[in-house]
């Protein structure tokens, strides 16, 4: 599934150092099975899905910690029914030692279930400081958002980073996945030009079938023109094929300039399964090591 990148390319190895993974609450068993391929201390995001309850999310984070990995539970602002629900969730994580790192998303619902219209409202609630949250990740959108204008996205990014800094909470940005490395690098450069210097994790889809990758891309408004798909290694005419992120990571590494792009790492969306993604990352690191 992986290939040796272009001769002389060393940056992919740097980008793969300290990569992160994303799982759902129900993926905890799969994570256990893939543990041998995942470096100790790897950050593992636990998503906040509507059909998974608080207990399942807390239990998944507990499994991540038991496996010697670092849990990064997600908090979906618009899905929270009350401030008390946020307090209960973060408090439950803290009791297990899993509240040091959180990732905040607004969530899909157009109408909030409770008092939090967006992630900034969660940051300003005071709950994070109360539970000694040390670092918070926020979302970035290199290809924009299908329902939010670009100027609103930029303003929100700057406001959230500023609000976290005011509270003494570390920040990082994790991007939506995409297939165009040049576009991602251009967006990161704009982030730096706006004075946002926090670490950025570039969202990368793990190896998966073409049909599944294109389905997720459509859902999240990710560009899949014929030229971009071909550059990534996706076939728009053979949906039974599969693709890994080899070409994307190679291109990202070739274009990465620490002076222009700052601290950059990779974040894998495990669309094709936790095990497949972990094995790909291990194989790719060995092939460029």
From TrEMBL:
Pathway: One-carbon metabolism; tetrahydrofolate interconversion
Catalytic activity of the protein: (6S)-5-methyl-5,6,7,8-tetrahydrofolate + NAD(+) = (6R)-5,10-methylene-5,6,7,8-tetrahydrofolate + NADH + H(+)
Top-level taxon of the source organism: Bacteria
Pfam families named in the record: MTHFR
Alphabetically ordered keywords of this record: FAD, Flavoprotein, Oxidoreductase
Alphabetical list of InterPro entries matching this protein: FAD-linked_oxidoreductase-like, Mehydrof_redctse-like
Signal sequence residues: none
Cofactor(s) required for function per UniProt: FAD
PANTHER family named in the record: METHYLENETETRAHYDROFOLATE REDUCTASE, METHYLENETETRAHYDROFOLATE REDUCTASE (NADPH)
Homology family: Belongs to the methylenetetrahydrofolate reductase family.
Official protein name in the record: Methylenetetrahydrofolate reductase
């Amino acid at each position: 599934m992986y290939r040796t990148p272009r001769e002389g390319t060393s940056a992919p190895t740097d980008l793969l150092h300290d990569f992160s993974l994303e799982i759902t609450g129900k993926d905890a068993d799969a994570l256990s099975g893939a543990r041998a391929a995942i470096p100790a201390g790897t950050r593992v995001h636990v998503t906040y899905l509507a059909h998974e309850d608080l207990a399942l999310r807390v239990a998944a984070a507990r499994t991540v910690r038991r496996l010697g990995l670092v849990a990064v539970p997600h908090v979906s602002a618009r899905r929270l029914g009350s401030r008390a629900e946020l307090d209960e969730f973060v408090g439950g994580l803290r009791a297990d030692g899993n509240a040091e790192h959180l990732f905040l998303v607004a969530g899909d619902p157009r109408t909030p279930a409770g008092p939090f219209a967006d992630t900034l409202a969660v940051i300003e609630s005071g709950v994070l400081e109360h539970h000694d949250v040390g670092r918070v990740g926020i979302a970035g959108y290199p290809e924009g958002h299908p329902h939010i204008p670009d100027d609103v996205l930029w303003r929100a990014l700057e406001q959230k980073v500023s609000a976290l800094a005011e509270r003494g909470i570390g920040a990082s940005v994790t991007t939506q996945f995409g297939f165009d490395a040049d576009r991602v690098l251009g967006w990161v450069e704009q982030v730096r030009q706006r004075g946002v210097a926090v670490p950025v994790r570039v969202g990368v889809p793990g190896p998966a079938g073409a049909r599944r990758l294109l389905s997720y891309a459509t859902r999240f408004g990710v560009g899949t023109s014929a030229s971009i798909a071909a550059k990534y290694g996706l076939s728009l005419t053979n949906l039974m094929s599969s693709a890994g992120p080899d070409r994307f990571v190679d291109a990202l590494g070739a274009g990465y300039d620490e002076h222009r792009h700052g601290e950059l790492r990779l974040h894998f969306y495990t669309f094709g399964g936790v095990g497949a993604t972990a094995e790909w990352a291990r194989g790719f690191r060995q092939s460029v090591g």
